[in-house]
Write a structure and sequence with these properties.
This protein has helices spanning 14-22, 26-30, 116-155; strands at residues 2-10, 37-43, 51-58, 61-73, 77-84, 89-99, 102-112. With 158 residues, the chain is of the alpha+beta class. This is Coenzyme Q-binding protein COQ10 START domain-containing protein.
């Protein structure tokens, strides 16, 4: 089992960061433009039972990815688990912690790559680097979007 974690202190209240993640267009916003991913559907918001479905492209090969939300504790945590997809297993914890009016956003993923320990040893570093690149992008978008919400509330406009 491999573990990936990425954390950022977002300069916005926890409620603002949580509400950003509740947006109906969140998957579009958080998908890096360079990734070969097609969003098929998102249903149920962040609550338990919610689903997100994607089509990933590995070259010319489409791969279905279906994730179900298995835990939700607003505005602190939601967890999704891959039901169908490219990994042997995948559990993604989205954690939100209040730190003096800011929010510590942490994405933690525990996953297994098909093929066992040898494959994990051979390509685990590559998967980790792709995840780091993706979550750097996601956290930057989250900060930018939450900055806009805070500025609008503070100054009454754009």
């Amino acid at each position: 089992m491999l573990t990936f974690q990425y954390t950022t202190l977002i300069n916005a209240p926890i409620e603002t960061v949580w509400q950003f993640h509740e947006r109906s267009d969140i998957l579009v916003l958080l998908t890096p433009p360079w990734q070969p991913v097609q969003i098929i559907k998102r249903e149920g918001g962040l609550g338990v039972g919610a689903i997100s479905e994607f089509r990933l492209w590995l070259g010319f090969i489409p791969i279905r990815w279906l994730a179900h939300h298995i835990e939700c504790n607003p505005p602190y945590l939601f967890v999704d688990r891959q039901e169908i997809g490219p990994m042997e297993s995948w559990v993604h914890r989205h954690e939100f912690v209040n730190e003096n009016g800011q929010t510590r956003l942490t994405d933690k993923i525990e996953y297994e790559i098909p093929g066992g320990l040898i494959v994990e040893f051979l390509i685990g570093w590559w998967v980790d680097s792709r995840l780091k690149e993706m979550f750097r992008y996601r956290h930057e978008v989250t900060q930018r979007e939450c900055d806009e919400v805070v500025a609008t509330r503070t100054f009454g406009g754009g």
